[in-house]
Amino acid sequence: LAELGRAARMDTVQFLGPLEQDTKLLFDTFNQMVQPKIVRKTFDDHERIQQLLEEHRADKDPAHIEELEQLIAGMSAEQLVQIASVYSNMSNLVNIAESVHRIRRWRAHARGESGLLQHHSCDDIIAELLQSGRTADEIRQQLGSQTVELVLTAHPTQALRRSILSKLHEVATVLLTLHRDDITPAEVDANHASLRRLLLAMWRTDEVRRTPPTPEDEARNALNVLEETVWDAVPNYIRQINFSLAKIGQPPLSIDADPFHFGGWAGGDRDGNPFVTAKVTERVVMINRYRAAVLYLHCIEELLFEISVHYGSDSLKSYTASAKTVEPVEFSRKLKYKEFWNYVPPQEPYRVLLAQIRDRMTATRDYCDARLADKPMPEITPGDIYTTADEFLEPLMVMYKSLQELNDAPIAEGRLVDLIRRVKTFGISMVKLDIRQEADQHTALMTAITEAIGDGSYGSWDEKQRMEYLVGILKSPRPLVPKDLECSDKCQEVLNTFKKIAEIGPEFLGAYIISMCMQPSDVLVVCVLQREFVGTKGKMLRVVPLLETISALQGSTQTLQTLFQTDVYRTMVKEGNNDVQEVMVGYSDSGKDGGRVTSAWELYQAQESMTKVAADAGVSLRFFHGRGGTVGRGGGPQHLAILSQPPGTINGYFRVTIQGEVIQQDFGLPDLAVRTLETYTSAVLKADLTERKPPPDEWREIMNTMSEISCEKYRSIVHREERFVEYFRKATPEQELGMLN
After folding, report:
1. Listed residue (578, 595, 690) closest to 645, CA to CA
2. Can you list the positions of beta strands (E) in 476-592?
3. Residue 386 to residue 326: CA distance in whole angstroms
4. Residues 6+ positions from 426 with CB-CB distance below 8 Å
5. Which of 31, 136, 420, 698 is 20 to 30 A from 115 via CA?
6. Using one digit for the tens of pLDDT, what is the confidence trace for 618-635?
7. Paired strand residues for 263
8. Are 243 and 408 a contacting pair, CB within 8 Å?
9. Residue 256 burial (CB < 10 Å; 0-12/13-18/19+)?
10. To the nearest 10°, the Cα dihedral for 222, 224, 228, 232?
């Protein structure tokens, strides 16, 4: 009966019907709001263009296109701008309507009322794995040990202004509300009024960003996405994973599970961006810390209300009694909290401890605020502010274990476990900021140093000489950089960056990525420069070579082999990174270098060979995938992209860039954010628990032939055809798009 009932309800959300209704509503309302704002002839021309396009789609009559060309040719520049703006807005509205329809279909599928073409949910993949012979325990172990790290970049392919994006998100909310079964007539009227307001505001908003965004602007934009959708999506989706595990008789994920991390490039990526300086990186880190503190304070306030329990374990009481009471620092002494600002009942131990946590987080927020505003800094003693995620986690875990110990697990599994999950995901700075710099910049700095100290010209040495010199420096405790070093402004900025990242430290920073990394010395020189400022006992950022050309990919095996055979580097990997080496592979630049077929095949082969070299050296290799949104930048369906990686190259860890417009596509709406997390999680789960065989030799031979032919043809046009650049600029809006950022 249950199956019959479900079958009767299938596809209550039609495949296209609601999308067509939403699109018609948006277009009709938009035209209604725009018509009075432009001259009648321009609006009539716009309607005629729409009519000609619809007629051409129906009968393919070339006469419609001829009339369309004549109509457009007779328009003034002002008319063309207005009509282009109309279609730009309409395209944005179609995109948001499609996002809403995807959400509607997903939700209907979850209710058993709609089918889907793709089955990538956690439940779907778990069912597949069980059917293939995997046990429920194996599935839980894998989910509890794997990590997906999503790195938000500041790539300029997102041309939409935040002013437009925010209105589109409100439009999405209106559409979702209008499709509710329990909506009242008054609510329908109110939502239609909201829609008219939003669409008129969109039309009146300048679509073009008139001033280029600063690195700080780009960092704030990424934080806005995390705050608006991902902040809640992470604990919500982890809870969904636990529900899926419960269905197969498994307990929830351990509190120590670490399924998601987030990284960032805005403010840290200085490759080709002279505006990203050491000072900018410091400010962006402080912005990240400030925004995290604000969000955590809100969570702590909620917990102060939720955990009103008037008893606790002995360990909780002992911890609370011994914890340092932190007074808000001087410039925030008069702060009045929203609630519990004057009195916390002493017989409620959880609230007492939460009040202490709140004081320290408030001091952290105000410290960051003072740093950003260049205010006089008070004297800070250890324990006044949070400087590591572990410091923040410690009291939260004490409360969590106390509730579990006293059989109050449902309380522990509420907002408290959500907060713990967030701290493990976002740390105390929302994202860990990667540093990226071009290899040639390090070579130039090292050349200036060696010339200044009389050791010769590093830039003129061959690879063997460079490696011998760098190894000698790493084995010696003596300082390398003279205090009075005279060098170019560019070299000084690179030097300042190394000084600053040593001050900031790995708690707030991620990897040091070397773009255009071509040889082992490119990696070793970064180790030398980092060691110069962190000292022999300090913690360096992990050094990640970025292989982004065909030749770099083809030479990757030799590069890693040389590094792992270099004793001093092998020791650094073992002691500093727990025998883990990360390598970034670039999809976009390798595609531009050799074409899509050659790029894809060389990426595949390079990952295979590097994994074998690392395994032979006793090193666990992790890949960082630099993928964009379009196919030309390595984009494509996320789930399939992960499953297409060579066998044995994921191993419970997948790190990937989320670039430009893809950030909004994946995380712009709350339900999209949850779905994105699910797609990555289920793909990594399936990739690691599905036995996959490498391609047979005959397939490899075919791919080698295809790659060779493809690369030669591609380069003959793009690299050697003198007219290509002229053609490209006439056939595409490349230069105009560049002006938008």
Report:
1. 690
2. 509-515, 542-547, 580-586
3. 11
4. 226, 231, 234, 262, 292
5. 136
6. 999 999 998 876 666 666
7. 151, 432
8. no
9. exposed
10. 60
Q: How far apart are CA 155 and CA 661, in angstroms?
A: 8
- Of 502, 557, 505, 551, residue with least CA distance to 529: 502
Task: Decide: 626 and 582 in contact? Cβ < 8 Å.
Answer: no
Are the C-beta atoms of 545 and 517 separated by less than 8 Å? Answer: yes
Structure tokens that stand for 156 in this block: 């300029």
DSSP conformational letter for 330: G
Residue 4 vs residue 588, higher pLDDT: 588
Confidence of residue 3 (pLDDT cuts 50, 70, 90): very low
Question: How would you classify the pairing of strands 653-658 and 432-438?
Answer: unpaired
Neighbours of 247 (CB within 10 A): 12
Q: Which of 64, 120, 155, 432 is catalytic?
A: 155
Q: What is the CA radius of gyration of the chain?
A: 28
Catalytic residue chosen out of the listed positions 120, 424, 592, 686: 592
* 155 has catalytic annotation: yes
Judging by beta carbons within 10 Å of its beta carbon (0-12, 13-18, 19+), is residue 306 exposed, middle or buried?
middle
pLDDT in tens, 330-387: 434 435 576 666 678 888 999 999 999 998 999 999 899 999 998 877 677 767 899 9
- Write the CA distances from 561 to 465, 469, 544, 610, 611, integer angstroms: 18, 19, 15, 8, 11
Question: Quick one: angle between helices 122-132 and 136-145, nearest 10?
Answer: 130
**Number of Cβ atoms within 10 Å of the Cβ of 690:** 14
Half-sphere exposure of 358 (CA within 13 A, CB side): 23
Among candidate residues 496, 368, 487, the one with its CA nearest the CA of residue 435: 496
Is 592 designated active site? yes
| CA distance linking residue 618 with residue 571, whole number of Å | 12
What is the overall mean pLDDT for the chain?
Answer: 90
The pTM of this model reads 0.91
Crossing angle (nearest 10°) for helices 77-110 and 670-689 = 60
Please answer whether residues 685 and 142 qualify as being in contact, where contact means their C-beta atoms are separated by less than 8 angstroms: yes
Q: State the Cα–Cα distance between residues 588 and 731, nearest whole angstrom.
A: 20
Q: How far apart are CA 428 and CA 357, in angstroms?
A: 13
* Adjacent-strand bridge partners of 151: 263, 657
**Nearest Cα to Cα of residue 367 among 391, 385, 341:** 385
Strands (E) in 260-419, as ranges, are: 260-264
Structural tokens at position 574: 């073992």
Pairing between strand 542-547 and 509-515?
parallel
Sequence letter at residue 203:
W
CB 240 within 8 A of CB 122: yes
Cβ neighbours, 10 Å, residue 686: 21
Q: How far apart are CA 462 and CA 233, in angstroms?
A: 51
Q: CA 438 to CA 142: how far, in whole Å?
A: 36
Residue 405 sits at the vertex; the CA angle it makes with 402 and 410, to the nearest 5 degrees, is 85
Q: Which two tokens stand for residue 637?
A: 């369906």
Sign of the Cα torsion 349, 355, 361, 367 reads: negative
Instruction: Tell me which residue of 125, 123, 121, 124 sits closest to 685, measured CA to CA.
Output: 125
Please name the residue ranges forming H helices in 669-723: 670-689, 697-718
Helix (H/G/I), strand (E/B), else coil: 477:
coil
Question: What count of Cα atoms within 13 Å lies in the side-chain half-sphere of residue 377?
Answer: 10
Q: What angle do CA 264, 607, 594 make, to 5 degrees?
A: 85
Q: What does 35-57 look like in DSSP terms, one character per residue?
A: GGGS-HHHHHHHHHHHHHHHHHH
